[in-house]
Amino acid sequence: MTDDDTDDRDVLDVLTVYRPASPPRELRARVLATEKITTRPRPSLWPIAAGLALSALLQWAAARVDAGGTAARDTSAATQLQEALEGVPDIERLAASYRRSRFVPHREPLNTVGLDEVL
Amino acid sequence: MHDHDDGSGAPDTLAAMYDAHAPGLYRYALMIVADHAAAQDAVHQAFSKIVGRETSIRSVSDYLRTAVRNECFTLLRRRRLDPPPRNDRPLLEPVAPSSSHEERLVLEEALRALPPEQREVVFLKVYEGLTFEEIAGRTEAPPNTVASRYRYALAKLREGLAVPSRARRSG
Asked: Is the ipTM of this complex over 0.95?
C-alpha cells in the first residue's frame, strides 16, 4: 500500500482539471429555513394547565354543593321522621325502626317513601 | 481544496457554519451518491441534526462530515428500490482552462459507473488530499481495502477515458 501517484498521473491529470460541482444556491436557503422551523418557540402549556385546574376546581365545588344539599335534605327528613314517631306505641316504633333500616339511604326522599308507611 | 477545521473557534450560527462547511460537504456527498437531489438531502439532513446542538458537539466539522456520509449511504440503500433519473445536472465543474465539455461528460460517465465506495475514496484522495491511512480512519475500512478501492477506481476511470482520448487524437 503506497500513496505514490506516479503511475496514475494520466488519470489524475484529467481528474484535477475538474472538481465535484458546488452546491446550488437554494440549498443554503433550505438549510437556513430549518433553523427557523427547529428553533420556533413552542406553545406554552400554561393555558391548558390552568384550564384543567379550573375545571377540576369547578367539579369539586359542584360536588361539595351537591353533597351539602343531600345532607341538608337527609337531616330534614330525619327530623320529620323523629317528630312523626313521637307518641307512637313502642311496638309500632320498633316496627318503624325495622322498616327504616330497610329504607334506601340518603338520596331516597325519606319523607315521601318511608313516612306514609310509618304513619 | 482542504476545508478542514478542528472545530475550535467554529462559527456558531447556522449560516456561518453553512458557509464554512457546506461546499466541501456537498462535493463529498455528490461524489458518493452521484445525484444532486440526494446530495442536497444528505447535506440538509446533516445540518438539521446540528441545529440547537452546536455547543455540545466537540468538532462541528467532524460531526457534519460523518453525518453527511451516513445520510449518503442511507439514501443509497433506499435508492436500490427506486433509481434516480439520469438527466441530472453535471457532477463536475471545470477548474482549469484545459477542460472540455466532451471530456467532462466522459469522465462523469466513468465516475457514475463506479461503486459509491470507490468514488468516495477517489474524492478523499484526489480532491481532499488524504492518505490511505486517513481515509481508512474516516471510512472505517482497512487501509489495504481503501488502497484497493482507489486502484480499481483509477483503472476503471483510465479505461473509460481511453476511448474519447483516442477518438480526439484520430479526429
From this structure: no
